[in-house]
Design brief:
- A seven-stranded parallel sheet has the order 3-2-1-6-4-7-5.
- It is α/β, with parallel strands linked by helices.
- It has five helices and seven strands, in the order βαβαβαβββαβα.
- Helices cover 34% and strands 19% of the residues.
C-alpha cells in the first residue's frame, strides 16, 4: 500500500504524513510541483528523524507518477461517492490525496478507481490533510490485516 500526495502545498502536512508512513510502514509518492521547497525546515520539523525510514519517491509530475505506478487509485476526497468504512481495500492500493487548496483536477479524479469520503459532521468543511491521511491509511491497513503489531 502507498500514499500518493498530489501537488501538496504545506510542508508541515507532508512532514506529518511522512512520519505517519514511517510508523505504519507504507511508502509515499509526492507528485510535484509542491507549494514549498522540498528541503523546507517545516517539512523536516514535522517529519523529524522518521523521514529516513520511509520509502519516499518524488515524481516530477502526474504523468511520471502514472508511468511508475499501476495499482488501484483510491482517491480520498470531500466529493467522494463511497464512504471510507464501505470501501474494500487491497494491499496494493494507492491512497491518493489532493492538495490542501483544490484537491485534484477533474481529469485526475475521473481516472480514480474509487472516490472515497471520510464521514464528517455536515457543519464541518474537511479534515486537515495529514489527519485525513491517518484515518484512511489506518482503516485500509486494518482491513488488509497489515497494521503493525
Amino acid at each position: 500500500m502507498r500514499i500518493a500526495l498530489y501537488q501538496p502545498e504545506i510542508a508541515g502536512n507532508v512532514g506529518a504524513i511522512l512520519r505517519l508512513a514511517a510508523c505504519f510502514g507504507v511508502g509515499v509518492d509526492v507528485i510535484e510541483p509542491c507549494g514549498f521547497v522540498f528541503s523546507d525546515a517545516r517539512l523536516k520539523r514535522a517529519g523529524m528523524d522518521y523521514i529516513e525510514h520511509v520509502d519516499l519517491v518524488r515524481h516530477s509530475d502526474w504523468n511520471d507518477f502514472r508511468a511508475q505506478h499501476r495499482g488501484r487509485l483510491m482517491l480520498l476526497t470531500t466529493h467522494g461517492t463511497v464512504a471510507l468504512h464501505q470501501t474494500e481495500f487491497r494491499p496494493d492500493d494507492i491512497l491518493l490525496f489532493g492538495n490542501e487548496g483544490s484537491g485534484v483536477p477533474p481529469e485526475v479524479a475521473a481516472i480514480a478507481d474509487a472516490r472515497i469520503r471520510i464521514a464528517i459532521r455536515p457543519e464541518a468543511r474537511s479534515f486537515n490533510l495529514s489527519v485525513a491521511c491517518g484515518i484512511a491509511v489506518a482503516e485500509a491497513l486494518r482491513q488488509t490485516g497489515d497494521l503493525p503489531r
